[in-house]
Amino acid sequence: MLETLRRIIQEVNTAPDLQRALNIIVERVKKTIKVDVASVYLSDADRSQHVLMATDGFRQDAVGKVRADFGTGLVGMVREREEPVNVEDAPSHPRYRFIGETGEKPYHGFLGVPIIQHGNVLGVLVVRHREKRKFGEEEEAFLVTLAAQLAGAITHAGASGEVSRLLDALDSQSMFLNGLPGAKGVGIGQALVVYPLANLDAVPDRKAEDPAAEEAAFRKAVDDVKDDLRKYSASMAAALPVEDLALFDALIMMLGSESMLDGTVERIRAGNWAPGALRETIHEHVQVFENMEDTYLRQRASDISDLGRRVLTYLQAVGEVSREPFPQTILVGEELSAGQLAEIPMSQLAGIVSARGSTSSHVAILARAMGVPAVMGVEDLPVGRLEGQKLVVDGYRGIVYVNPNDTVCSEFIRLQHEETRLSAGLKNLRGKESITPDGVTIPLYVNTGLISDIEPSLNAEGSGVGLYRTEIPFLVRENFPGEDEQMRIYRKMLEAFSPRPVTLRTLDIGGDKMLPYFPVNEENPFLGWRGIRITLDHPEIFLTQLRAMLRASSGLDNLQILLPMVSGVVELDESLKLIRRAHEEVVEEGMAVRFPPIGVMLEVPSAVYLVEMMARRIDFFSIGTNDLTQYLLAVDRNNTRVAGLYDSLHPSVLRALRYIVEGVHSEGKPVCVCGEMAGDPAAVLLLMGLGVDGLSMNAGSLPQIKWVIRSFRQDEAGDLLDEVWKLEDPHSIRRLCNSILELGGLGGLVRAGN
To answer: Do the strands 49-56 and 37-44 form a parallel or antiparallel pair, or are they unpaired?
Structure first.
């Protein structure tokens, strides 16, 4: 049966349209399971009906005409339960419904399985047998597998409008695709689909006949790509702030790094031709980044892939056929890169849609900086069918409308006008303090990562850097960076923000975020050797980094050190001992270095209940809400099966935050919040009520969060929090917070429109 299943799936995948795919399914199922009837019903959500769309065994003239309300019959029962229904004698079942229009006779054996995609029942696959029959587990598993395959085909067809045509849907119906909000805003335009510039995977190994010539060609291709990136940077200089333009500098640095450049050259000199050597180098780097736990860093794999394709394009001396963008272009692709984004004139870029990526992708970050709405991570995105089609991008909800009707378009045009007025209002906040109407100041800081490694967020209005990830210099090399190299990087950051504080997080690797030259194999890496555990076991690495940080702060005195993944006081005491040792060594060398404030990043549940003990030893705390939420809820937010369970407004998360704030404040120490929660307007209301001392977020979120803080008194936030403690689920909490924002005139922060 497995071979049969494989053949059927192959036929479905190669079917020219959905109707043919449905027909293939019923024909093959009837023959394989040996039943009298096999049928597929599609869900017409607009009319709340099941529609017979394919059958082998019933009358063909019934296809498209036989409809049944969702709540009726055994087919309706399958939809309600969202699981297989296996009935030996259907006519005797209380939910049985006879439909004469199909030519149906009293069939007895019944097995129906739901066709489900992302929690939505798209239809029902049904087999019937004339005699009484209880279908076996293998037969049931066979149908479930086919239904899952069919779900993808239906989703693709839905996006292209094919399902609407098949169901004879109302003209006013709009098809839509769900993804992740990448950048807020509304965009309307035509889809311009971009494809990879070159296919690295297709490059074969080949002996280099002239290694010197291959090396020269490779170096020339690298220089050409660098020139392209500089041109893109120059073309976007008017639209992007300095910190975001630095992305292109970061890509150039990555392209010229030792591990990328020298690694490829070494492979060429070892005998492989340039394209083959490049393929091996790129694949090696992509694998390292894709295996990382940190979502932000994992997204860097797409940047590396894009660099590799661009270099290969020059090596092959063949470029992508130039296409003129539409007046209002929605850029669409499986995996978009910053370079592809830069190729579209800013005046013509109306939106971004990507099948991969998340809110931490470079493309999403750039989109937010440019004010271009983006939807990321659109699963089952029918890229090949979207070229030239009209799209509406709702970056607030992460929804893409395909071929919307005039009514839908008119509504979103109205929302665009309201957005324009809202943005103008936020610009008026520039230069104003982040202070509540009742006089409570809540400092706002910026989180920085790869983009800021070269050029920090100088234009940000934040009170400093709340989180600087130090992993990048370690990840772009083939060995540990030396003390002097690290010192230069940290010094540049500290100088740029002086006298504002800069919080440098110590090396946070491990889990599946491993260095290529420091591999660790574990059964459960997420709960294994990572973060502070690694650096404490390797004091030579830890001390080198600490010395670099301290030396970099000489004469500036704006350094703060943050320790990641601390789970107990023993780890903290050992870390403090090493920090003091590093400070003593630097002072003994004659450098005037102040002992910096030391903080703990609260992201491990065990640390939540030890905050009072830790507070007696350190100076401040920063709550990493992303990891803390995941650990508390046992949910990987990047796992699509459970991502819907991830919500930082979960009552348990909020209660943990209350415990932290109360415990830290009882010891007279400050606590800041970093991560997505700090940039979420709804969450910020509750954080204000909890009394946190600061918020750290991406620079693009600062104006919005400043607006929230300047619009609500702290006692109002406290009253809201009192109501929240009575609620039992995150959805109710978010609805309440959003309603408060709406009543306060800030509804434009959580939805399209003013």
So the answer is: antiparallel
- Cα–Cα dist 294/625, whole Å: 13
Count Cβ atoms within 10 A of the Cβ of residue 56 and give its class: 0-12 exposed, 13-18 middle, 19 or more buried.
buried
Largest CA distance in the chain: 96
Cα–Cα distance for residue pair 675/203, rounded to 1 Å: 40
What's 2-173's CATH class?
alpha beta
Q: Mutual orientation of helices 625-633 and 651-666 as an angle, nearest 10°?
A: 120
Q: Are strands 186-193 and 390-394 parallel, antiparallel or unpaired?
A: antiparallel
Task: State pLDDT tens for residues 724-752.
Answer: 999 999 989 999 998 999 888 888 787 66
Cβ-based neighbours of 414, under 8 Å, separated by 6 or more: 753
Which residues are within 8 A (CB) of 580 and not within 5 positions of it... i.e. 6 or more apart? 595
For the domain 427-749, what is the CATH superfamily, name and number? Phosphoenolpyruvate-binding domains (3.20.20.60)
- The per-residue b/e assignment along 674-692, b for 16 or more CB within 10 angstroms, e otherwise, is bbbbbbbbbbbbbbbbbbb
Q: What is the fold, at CATH topology level, of the domain defined by 200-316?
A: Enzyme I; Chain A, domain 2 (1.10.274)
Task: List alpha helices for 360-458, DSSP H.
Answer: 362-370, 406-427
Which two structure tokens, joined as six digits, stand for 315? 């090596």
> For 105-130, how does the pLDDT look when each residue is reduced to its tens digit (9 = 90+)?
678 999 999 999 878 899 999 999 99
> Which helix (H) or strand (E) covers residue 91, if one does?
none
Fold of 177-194+322-426: Glucose Oxidase; domain 1 (3.50.30)
Q: Rounded to whole angstroms, how far apart are CA atoms 685 and 200?
A: 48
Give the distance from CA 617 to its chain's centroid: 36
Assess contact for 638 and 358: CB atoms under 8 A.
Answer: yes
Separation of alpha carbons 547 and 587, rounded Å: 10
Q: Is 2-173's fold the same as 427-749's?
A: no
Is 513:531 a contact under the CB 8 Å cutoff?
no
pLDDT in tens, 331-390: 998 878 776 787 888 889 999 998 877 665 667 767 876 779 999 888 767 776 677 889
Tell me how far apart the alpha carbons of residues 323 and 591 are, in angstroms, rounded to a whole number: 58
Measuring CA to CA, how many Å separate 511 from each of 56, 215, 376, 603?
51, 36, 25, 14
Known catalytic residues?
362, 674
Residue 320 DSSP class: P
| Ordered DSSP codes for 394-421 | ETTTTEEEES--HHHHHHHHHHHHHHHH
Q: What is the DSSP string of 691-754?
A: T-SEEEE-GGGHHHHHHHHHHS-HHHHHHHHHHHTT--SHHHHHHHHHHHHHHTT-GGGTSS--
Distance CA 294, CA 360 (A): 10
Secondary-structure percent of the chain, ordered helix, strand, coil, rounded to 5: 50, 15, 35
| pTM for the predicted model, two decimal places | 0.59
